[in-house]
Structure formats: C-alpha cells, structure tokens
Design a protein that fits this description.
single chain; alpha/beta; Maf protein; 7-stranded mixed sheet; globular
Amino acid sequence: MPRLLETTRLILASHNAGKLREMRELMADYGIEIVSAGDLNLPEPEETGLTFIENAELKALAAAKAAHIPAFADDSGLCVEALNNEPGIYSARWAGASKDFDAAMAKIEDLLQQADATTPARRRAHFVSALTLAWPDGHVESFEGKIYGEIVWPPRGKAGFGYDPFFLPEGHDRTFGEMSAEEKHGLPKDGGLALSHRARAFQTLAKACLKTPS
C-alpha cells in the first residue's frame, strides 16, 4: 500500500519558479502549503541518476532529510526520438547555467535539421515527468507521466516555461507555450484533461498518497 501523506506543509525540492507555480496550482485543492527548497536555502544535490525517477528520488530525499519534513520533487525532460531521446534527463543542462531555453531549443532544431528531421513523423517527441514524495525516514513514493507530440519551429507562445513553446501535444493545434495553465495541467475533477506530463504524474500520485479534498 502506498504511504498516505499526513501533513499540510510540503517542500518542493526545486529552485525552478515555473515548477513551483505549477505544483502550487496542482496542490491547492488538497490544503497543502508548498515551500520551495530555494525559500529554505537548501542546496541542490547533484543529479547523478540515470533515469527521471532516480533523479526525482535523489532530490526529494535530500530535501526531506535536510528539513525534517516530507518533500516533493519533480524530474522532467524532453525526449526527441530522432535524437535518440535526447536531451532527456539532461534537458535542463542543455539550457546551461543561465537557463537559456531559447538557445536549447535552437540547438535541438539545428540537430533535427542535420538529421533531416523535417516532417512531423520525423519530429516526434515526448515529455516525461517523474514525481517523488519522500519522508525524512527515507521512504519514497514515485510516479511517472508522459505526453506525446512533436517539435515545431519556430517556437510559439509565451506561456509555460522551458521547452513548452516548441512542443505540440498530440491531437492539439497549439503548443504548451500557447496554452493557459488550466488547459495544460487541469485535472479531470476540475473539468480538465490532465494533459501535461506533470499533471498526469500528479494525478496518479494524488490518487495513491493524498487525502481526497473535502
């Protein structure tokens, strides 16, 4: 049986403002206050895992043990099929220390052009999100969500963050960068579709570990 979260305060083991905003929106109905690792000046551990789940668990455990309360971490990335699923777990690192995702998207587009990946079928990609809840005693619960689509160029839209402006989800005519937060990660209970990779992983996590909102 998954462990139920018995707290109203949770650390998000991330310094990413975009992730913090999305996770606060997703957790709002559950009466859980989200505090970021950045707010608590917790260091970011080196991501040495070889999978999204390994890195999510590494980050969540480090925060939970440092702060002595449960912590929550996301490790996510973009996998481009024509590039052997790169950048994958290295998606943030492709943007560099300055988090220049415009440059990272241009790099991916350049590599796709070099690979002659110019048709939608050759530009297939998917986002992955691994979410982990960790407790100070070392217990973890991990979940993964995916969304499939294709890379578009040039990027479209100013909403979202990271690689959102050049990812077109399957069955849609707008990129994540052109969608509102509600469209991107709205949950079924709110009339949404749980479209994004993060929303899909969160939906599974919520069913397993969070108390149903009253």
